[in-house]
Automatic annotation (TrEMBL):
Name by which UniProt lists this protein: Helix-turn-helix domain-containing protein
Domain of life according to the entry: Bacteria
Database matches in PANTHER family: ARAC-FAMILY TRANSCRIPTIONAL REGULATOR, HTH-TYPE TRANSCRIPTIONAL ACTIVATOR RHAS
InterPro entries the UniProt entry points to: Homeodomain-like_sf, HTH_AraC, HTH_AraC-typ_CS
Segment forming the signal sequence: none
SUPFAM superfamilies given in the database record: Homeodomain-like
Sorted UniProt keywords: DNA-binding, Transcription, Transcription regulation
Protein species of origin: Salinimicrobium flavum
Amino acid sequence: MKLYIKNMVCNRCIMMVKSELEKFGLQPDAVQLGEVDLPRALSADEKEQLDKRFRELGFEIIDDRKTRLIESIKTCIVERIHYTEEPLKITFSEYLSEKFHQDYSSLSKLFSEVQGMTIEQYVITQKIEKVKELLVYDELSLSEIAHQLNYSSVSHLSKQFKKVTGLTPTHFKQVKENKRIPLDKL
């Protein structure tokens, strides 16, 4: 049985969900961002109790097909931006169309209706959070960050960063305040 879980955005989320499943006496076959494979189906009572516990932890079991698709799109974007070092060689629209075997315009329309923002806005938000993370780590130059996140230039990254945060990347680095936003709050 496959469960789809909302708000799983990092490896700690995977560990926490797996731990909670084990506390319920369930040994998952696999746990990954947004998805859990269980060896058996859950009873309605088990599913309700598990969902209640997950909600206490900031997660949620998703039953609706549209919501599952939206969460899968979000998970896919988060994985590409935050956990994949290799730059994407195609646009996000092409990538998502191929991944979900659907026309991008229909994915985009559904995403906008449910999320209240476009896929492009969501991608930009995630990219800016990744830029913030990399700036705080202070291991890469702005040029290296721009390349890693597939920006056409440092100038483009800087303009987008300022538009979203109100600060230039250099000023953000100097401020040294924690202005990052947890991924599950985006």
